Amino acid sequence: MNVGILGGGQLARMLALAGWPLDIRCRTIDPDPYACSGSVAPLTAIPFDDSTRILEWIKDMDVITYELEHIPQATIESLPASRLHPPAQALLATQDRLLEKKLCEKLSIPTAAFSPVAHVNELRNAIGQLGLPAVLKTRRYGYDGKGQWIITQATPLEPFFGRVGTMVPLIVEQHVDFEWEAALAAVRALNGTTRFYPLTRTHQEKGILRWARPLLPNEQSAGIEPQAREIMIALLEALNYVGVMVIEFFVTANGLLVNEMAPRVHNSAHWTIEGAECSQFENHLRAICGYPLGATESVGHCATVNLVGHVMSMNQLLSLPGLHLHLYGKMPRPGRKLGHVTLRHQDSGNLARSLDQVLKYTKEPLIKS
Ligand SMILES: Nc1ncnc2c1ncn2[C@@H]1O[C@H](COP(=O)(O)OP(=O)(O)O)[C@@H](O)[C@H]1O
Ligand SMILES: [Mg+2]
After folding, report:
1. 3-state secondary structure of 49
2. What pTM value is reported for the model?
3. CB 67 within 8 A of CB 6
4. What are phi and psi of 324, to 5 degrees?
5. Residue 86: is the preceding peptide bond cis (ω within 30°)?
6. CA-based radius of gyration for the chain
7. What is the block-wise mean pLDDT of the chain (369 residues), using blocks of 10 residues?
8. What residues does each domain of the chain span?
């Protein structure tokens, strides 16, 4: 099987690595000729808006998939639907925060209250309804907390909107006073069979995922996992989805609100490489290639910690028991995801101690290795 992946970041790299033992050969494209998939899979530098070259490139591919949402609509719609998984409609619905929220609204799935804003007066009116603080976000191209601003009483709206609002379409959301955040990964096969990974607790710092781990028994409160699965099924079915999808949730006293979803493999499920019977990467490939899905149950107690902005001494990291290191081969830059570690232990007490230790070790600012 030849799988073409649009995007050459760490997700493409880990997909290619997962495909290797199954003789699923991944090839990647990215506008950046030095994208990090290139060291493990063939990489061709093609801009995402060059659909002519992309159509030429996919001729040899049995299946086409993508590892990021920021692909122009014209390109995604030009791809042959029979070979593209997840389908174009999944990418189109999730690459724009407004369309994503409207889809949830249509399916009666709860989200934070929101409003599109094209003008400063609309922003003022929306804030009047939503209350403060509120979160202003670009509708497209946001990731790792980029392209979003918290608006408080003190924010002078006119100059602020003048700086950001006149350039790109925006959406404003109610700031959710969540208890914690969670993410659910599921995989759906061509025949509709669906499997769920355990619900995962996530923790973001400055908008970037810092750590993620499956819920502990005492966090399984008030039936949130069944609610998360119900929401997932509604979205997967509405989108006629094939592959791995992840939904990010705010956990509130009144249950779950959908924050956003990703039509692809996702950072919150990296722990599945060592911590699940079949990883999210392998299961995505199995699903889009039409193979039977792998088991999604967890193995041991796991947590993933991202290495953001710098990588500390490999000797120190690799000397920790139960630690698995994944480096993406990217140039260090503040706020950039350079790798992750997954900790796996036989009991949750050891995992908690190990997680504390690694969080201390890997904190920015950095110890240069
Ligand atoms: N409406 C909101 N209320 C409270 N926190 C928010 C809200 N929107 C985003 N955040 C915080 O910012 C993080 C990143 O925002 P998100 O919308 O998921 O964008 P990204 O695409 O960058 O991941 C969230 O995980 C959450 O911690
Ligand atoms: Mg997010």
Report:
1. coil
2. 0.96
3. yes
4. -120, 125
5. yes
6. 20
7. 98 98 98 98 98 97 97 97 98 98 98 94 94 94 90 85 79 97 98 98 96 92 91 98 98 96 98 98 99 97 95 88 97 94 96 94 61
8. 2-84, 113-174, 180-361
What is the CATH code for 180-361? 3.30.470.20
Token reading at 92: 């189109």
Contact present, 256 and 182 (Cβ < 8 Å): yes
Question: Do 2-84 and 180-361 agree at the fold level?
Answer: no
For residues 305 and 355, is the Cβ–Cβ distance under 8 A?
yes
- For residue 261 the two structure tokens come to 């979803």
The CATH homologous superfamily to which domain 113-174 belongs is: ATP-grasp fold, A domain (3.30.1490.20)
Q: Is the CB of 173 under 6 A from ligand 1?
A: yes
CA of 148 to the centre of ligand 1 (A): 8
Ligand nearest the Cα atom of residue 135: 1
Say if ligand 1 is within 6 A of residue 112 CB: yes
**144 Cα: distance to centroid of ligand 1 (angstroms):** 9
Evaluate: CB of 141 within 6 angstroms of ligand 1.
no
Ligand 1 pocket test target in 115, 171, 259 with most atoms within 8 Å of CB:
259
What are 57's two structure tokens?
């490139």
Quick check: CB of 135 below 6 Å from ligand 1?
Answer: yes
Neighbours of 122 (CB within 10 A): 16
